[in-house]
Design goal:
It is a single chain. The chain is α/β, with parallel strands linked by helices. It is 30% helix and 26% strand. The protein has helices at residues 61-82, 99-110; strands at 2-9, 38-45, 49-56, 86-89, 113-114. A 5-stranded mixed sheet has the order 3-2-1-4-5. It starts with a strand and ends with a strand.
C-alpha cells in the first residue's frame, strides 16, 4: 500500500495564514505571484520507498497521469515478480478523478496498480 499527496509552497503566505496584533486589522498587500509556486507530489510506502516529483506551478491532470504512469510501470514489475498488486491511497483531488485519469484506470489495473 502506498500513499499519495501533493503539497506546495509560495514566496508569499496566503492571507488566511497571516497574523495581526490584537486590536489591529489585518492588512496584507496582495501581489501577483504567477509561476512562483513550487509543488511536490509524493508517493510513500512505509519502510520501503518515497518517490516524488517537483514542479514549478501546480499538478494538473496531465502531470498527475504522467507520474502515475511511472508508478504503474514499477507496479507491473512487482506484479510480475511477486504476484502482488499495488494500492495507492489518495484524496479526491480534481486531477485524481478527472476524465483523463479515469481513462487510464483500466490500463493501470492491468499493470497491478489500483489508485
Amino acid at each position: 500500500m502506498k500513499y499519495l499527496d501533493e503539497s506546495g509552497c509560495c514566496l508569499e503566505s496566503p492571507v488566511s495564514y497571516s497574523y495581526a496584533r490584537i486590536g489591529q486589522q489585518k492588512r496584507i498587500e496582495q501581489v501577483k505571484s504567477y509561476g512562483n509556486r513550487i509543488s511536490i507530489l509524493g508517493v510513500w510506502q512505509e519502510e520501503q520507498s518515497f518517490d516524488y516529483i517537483l514542479v514549478q506551478g501546480s499538478f494538473n491532470k496531465e502531470r498527475y497521469v504522467k507520474v502515475i504512469n511511472q508508478v504503474a510501470e514499477k507496479s507491473e514489475q512487482i506484479l510480475k515478480e511477486t504476484g502482488r498488486i499495488t494500492v495507492i491511497v489518495q484524496d479526491n483531488g480534481s486531477a485524481h478523478t478527472s476524465h483523463l485519469s479515469r481513462e487510464h484506470w483500466q490500463k493501470w489495473q492491468l499493470q497491478g496498480l489500483y489508485p
